[in-house]
Amino acid sequence: MIYLRSVLFLFGLCVFSLGISITIKVNHLGIHPWDVLSLALFEQLGLSIGAWNIIVGILLIFVSFILDRSYIKIGTFLNAIIIGFMIDFYLGLSILPTATHTWLDVVTIIVGIVIMGVGGGLYNAAGIGSGPRDGFMLSISDKTGLSVGKVRIITELLVLFIGWLIGGTIFVFTFIFTFIQSPIFQFVYLRLVRVIDKYEASLKRKSRSA
Fold it and tell me: Which domain holds residue 98?
C-alpha cells in the first residue's frame, strides 16, 4: 500500500505545482501569500521562483525541527523540493496560459486555484507528510497555544507583508484565494482518505482469510 500512497503523493505534488504555476502566470490578479513572497524574491534577487520555494521551505523545516520535529517526515522534504522543481518545470513550458489582462485571466486564475485545491487534497490524503509550511504552522500552534487557524492567518499576513515590502504584487485574489482553495482541498482530501482506508481494510481482510 505504501507504493500506492507514494504514487498518489507524487501525483498530488505535480498537480499542486501545476496550479501554482498557472496562478503565477496571471499574478497581477493576486496570488497566494507564500507565492507572493517567492515571486518577489525572484524578481529582486534572481535565482528562480521554484528555487525560492525550496529555500523558504527548507528554512521552515529547520524552524519546525527546532520547535517540534514530530511534524518533519520524509514527505516534508520531498514536498519542498519537488514542488519547487515542478514550478520551474511548468513555468519553462510554453503551453501554460499567459496573461491577457482581460476577463480570461480571471478564469485562468480560478482554474489554477481549483487545481491547487485538488492537488493539495491528493498529496495530503497520501499521509506521507505535511508540507513545510503546514508543519511550520502546526509547530507554532503547539508552542503558542493558538489555534491553527489563527496561526495561519497571522503567518500568511506576515508573509504577505514581507512579500509586498520587497515588491510583490497583491490584488483581490490574494485575499479570496483560501476561500476558493480550501473547500476543494477538503472535499478531495476527505473522500480520498475514506477510499484509502476502505481499500486498506479490504486488503487486511483478504490477507487474514488467505
Answer: 2-209
Which tens digit of pLDDT belongs to each residue from 6-50?
Answer: 889 999 999 999 999 999 999 999 998 889 999 999 999 989 999
Question: What does the pLDDT look like over 96-119, one tens digit per residue?
Answer: 999 999 999 999 999 999 999 999
Q: Could you tell me the sign of the dihedral formed by the alpha carbons of 61, 177, 191, 147, in that order?
A: positive
Q: Which residues have a Cβ under 8 Å from the Cβ of 154 and sit 6 or more positions away?
A: 146
**Count of domains for the chain:** 1
Write down the residue that cell numbers 481499500 correspond to. 199
Exposed/middle/buried for residue 63 (C-beta within 10 Å: 0-12, 13-18, 19+): middle
Amino acid at 4: L
Residue type at position 177: F
Closest among 74, 36, 75, 71 to 56, alpha carbons compared: 36
| 24 within 8 A of 49, measured Cβ to Cβ | yes
